[in-house]
Fold this sequence. Notes:
- The protein is of the alpha/beta class.
- The chain is built from 38 helices and 26 strands.
- The strands form 8 sheets. It has a 7-stranded parallel sheet with strand order 9-14-8-15-16-7-17. Strands 19-20-21-22-23 form a 5-stranded mixed sheet.
- The chain starts with a helix and ends with a helix.
Amino acid sequence: MQTFLQLVAQDLHQKIGNDLSRVAIVFPNKRASLFFNEHLAAQSDRPLWSPAYVSISELFRQLSPWKLGDPIRLVCELYKVFREETHSEETLDDFYFWGELLISDFDDVDKNLVDADRLFSNLQDLKNIMDDYDFLDSEQEEAIRQFFQNFSIERRTQLKEKFISLWDKLGDIYHGYRDNLAELGIAYEGMMYRYVMEELQPEKLKYDRYVFVGFNVLNKVETRFFERLRDAGRALFYWDYDLFYTRLPREKTPPYTHEAGEFILRNLKIFPNELPETAFDVLRHPKNVRFISAPTENAQARYLPEWVHSVMKNDPSGTPTQEKENAVVLCNESLLLPVLHSIPSEVKNVNITMGFPLAQTPVYSFISALIELQTNGYRRDTGRYSYEAVQAVLKHPYTRQLSPSAEKLEKQLTKDNRFYPLPSELKQDEFLEQVFTPQTGISALCQYLTDTLREVSILYRQEQETDDIFNQLYRESLFKSYTLINRLLSLIDSGELNLQTDTLKRLLCRLLATSNIPFHGEPAIGMQVMGVLETRNLDFRNLIMLSLNEGQLPKAGGESSFIPYNLRKAFGMTTIEHKNAVYAYYFYRLIQRAENITLLYNTSSDGLNRGEMSRFMLQFLVESPHDISREYLEAGQSPQSGREIRIEKTPEIIARMYEKYNLVRHPKALFSPSALNAYLDCRLKFYYRYVAGLKAPDEVSAEIDSALFGTIFHRSAELAYKDLTANGKEIRKEDLEQLLRNDVKLQNYVDTAFKEEFFHVFPTERPEYNGTQLINAKVIASYLRQLLRNDLQYAPFTMEGMEEPVNEIMEIETAQGKLALNIGGTIDRMDSKGDTLRIVDYKTGGSPKTPENIEQLFTPADGRPNYIFQTFLYASIMCRKQSLKVAPSLLYIHRAASETYSPVIEMGEARQPKIPVNNFAFYEDEFRERLQNLLQEIYNPEEPFTQTEDKRKCEFCDFRDLCRR
Length: 965
């Protein structure tokens, strides 16, 4: 395969010889010069004088007296002129992002040598004198007519008024802006191009001959520049194309112009090619073309090893494939990382022409976390940070490496549920003090970011022996981020950039997200991984293109512009058709010399991707003279079937169970009602939680779940009754009535409970409720009133205990002999009246259940009354600890409003009269017998830990991911 650059090098050497020192070779981009140099050197066996290599943009910059302006500075300068010309009060925040759009339009105006006075003339004048515009051809005239057909000047809306008033000023803004920039010695690219063209004197140019290689679409400045050099006899032109999309379509019936050849045909007419047409009939040569559909983006990258293996083998002619003849072209550049991870080990050298996205480095995530911390993460009214913002900084690898206290602090905040921590409690060491100092204003924020990045740079200062590519990459990304923020800081300090914090945040995030870190390497060696734009002028024998979807090539949607489409078209400016034609050329030119072409596209429709192959693929499928193989990738996976989990009680597990609940070694170890309920609901859950010791990690949450709601209510009730029993255990009606009248006191109990159980703050500190928390606090206060009103009906009574721990030792028979186990828990409340002791368990949710008998409490089933099991367990313990009758009770606060409500538990068969359990002694023996059997079953080696049959119990289980249910 002879490449385009080889043909050019051969022809140029024949025409000019070995001394090319007075020749400048101009490429659309710099990359092609590295490959061209290699081909040129191969033309002679003797040393030769190398030509100068320059890209078209570099050439214009060299010829201009101005420097290319910094993008941010350019917007700031435009804003000054805009304010001056329009007397608008619009802030830079509102102006910034559409100011960029206006500069883009001015750039296009200049690059296409548009008469700005005519374009930006009063729209009424434009309509009136349209017929006098002799510079318009018929197509352009039609475009202007269509514009005024759709845009009626007479019928004005508010939006139209705004557009017209600004349009009338654009000419003055354009001229004033250019004058200001010229005084400062800076320019945007189009302004630079236009000036060079207007002042061009070909005889004063540095080189004798300018060779233009591989161009396609030319703007008006470039066209005029080429013409001037051609007329001066100082230019040679080399165009790359193929007859397939230039001459052949015009010879068909009916003749047509192929999209890919539209601009090349124009160029060939004005600037004849140095190479003969016979060199450009290669697309019809034999090729192996494959279209492959893939179910996801990443699946395409996973296909790479197979593709590499197929192209590395010798082809039928026996010619070995060189790595540099292979190219992986990414239409979606976000595939770079999956592609790099998929390149197999047999590829010895890789050259990556695309930059590594800064947004995928730890530096970017760290800066984002810091900005979020100091903006949305800090409340100036309360002087507190939000936990989410603090956690993102504390968990970042940089913070972990630079702060010895970060991990410990993060665990402490989680344990205390501190979702609004104060800066003072976060400043645990020198680095954390710097990070958690609140910043005010954009200058302080940028200074804070640069200071923090300087601290991070310490991590990369020492060259490590294992300094891998990622460390080099991250060091480079740190430097790039630092210089970018520093540049913003200098513009802010000089008064050029005056933004609100939110706008600065958006601007900074966008600047960082669009930055790339260049890879260093030898470009002319190894397999090439590149974006579509980098392929210009290069040819490859084996080619694979990934993500060749509609919307990726050509890119979806046109660029935003303030100049309406029809006016752009009328004045010969760039339109969406130009861009589509450019991408069509890139596609066809890239495949014309390749021998093995593999094109992949993603069939899934998600986000912007519509799951369609690119129109260019479809077009090639129809036009191609070659047989095209249609294939699809399929993930070699079968759906996972749910596997039953069954844990046998091995000697090791039995030994662990004996050890864990051994009263000699662990006197406080006990089987709580929660543990026994867990076993009855799901044996495997019991194993995970109470044998293996697994538990869900703590989380900081501003939400109040039902369990936490209940805990806060319990504590509020405990505080209220502590006050009522301060002078004795008897609860009297008049005390309850007095407390019910004191709303402030009741709310204080709730606030105190919130501070202790939820906010974890000092008693003297005021709780900071958000909306949902405030609603919960009011509901808990109303529940507390309901409890007191309910007790008012029952009073007088004696309060025997609140949140009282109780336990009892039970002996069971096991395979290894007798085993003593501690059983018990914490009773919410015990009160007595007459000869009855009530065991009261508060419930803030759910509905009362009526068990048929004791057996039902021990039978695993949906709707098993587990709360009653818990209260009965406490009742059985208390029966043996005192002489009063024991009445187990469940007080459902939210259902206790009626005067006849009784919390005493009832039992009985369905559709039979229910019997209140006023004396648990009648049920105690059966309950204890079944409890004994349950404990013996838990320690029975023949009974494995199995999953529950009732999958509804899995919905909110902490271990559902382990079970894969």
